């Protein structure tokens, strides 16, 4: 069984949003057109409380895109984005959202979650793995935003969990901070993720 995982196609990651990914909205028609070819479609939604610890505004003196050390490891600080129940956290208005499952992540104030599978401590599960296994889904295609953060971490975790994982790169867009896109490509390849 083959699942499509659509990562974080939300207003704040699209042009005009708080953490806009260049051309983030350009992938929406392509993703909508892919959905019918899969046994299941799962959407992830970045869903932070106001004052989340991944926001630079929560750390006096810090600026967005700085790296800090958190108890669970290094963490990039972001502009406030995808705050629960705001317009920025909603899916892009053209995205087809009648998916089998919508999984929210990043809702704990003290820990970020790039991956759809584990939070950034690499141990707290989101429950997505259990859902997919329970449904007999063993192959995954990942698309969405951003290639070098949430798509990257989700793909690597999925490969480590034993799924057959493909990232369809033309249906993804990257933030690309200091070479993060190339690093993500290298890490995904090393984990056995197929990039098409
Ligand atoms: C993401 C940074 C912070 C993403 C989410 O969806 O790639 N990036 N939160
Ligand atoms: Zn986030």
From TrEMBL:
The pathway this protein participates in, as annotated, is: Cofactor biosynthesis; nicotinate biosynthesis; nicotinate from nicotinamide: step 1/1
Q: Which PANTHER family match?
A: LD05707P, PYRAZINAMIDASE/NICOTINAMIDASE
Isochorismatase-like domain location: 4-195
Instruction: Give the Gene3D superfamilies listed for this entry.
Output: Isochorismatase-like
Does the entry feature the keyword Metal-binding, yes or no? yes
- What SUPFAM superfamilies does its record include? Isochorismatase-like hydrolases
Q: Which family does it belong to?
A: Belongs to the isochorismatase family.
Q: Which domain of life is it from?
A: Bacteria
Name listed for the protein in its UniProt record: nicotinamidase
Q: Which organism is it from?
A: Ruegeria aquimaris
What's in the keyword line of the UniProt record? Hydrolase, Metal-binding, Pyridine nucleotide biosynthesis
GO molecular-function terms, A-Z: nicotinamidase activity
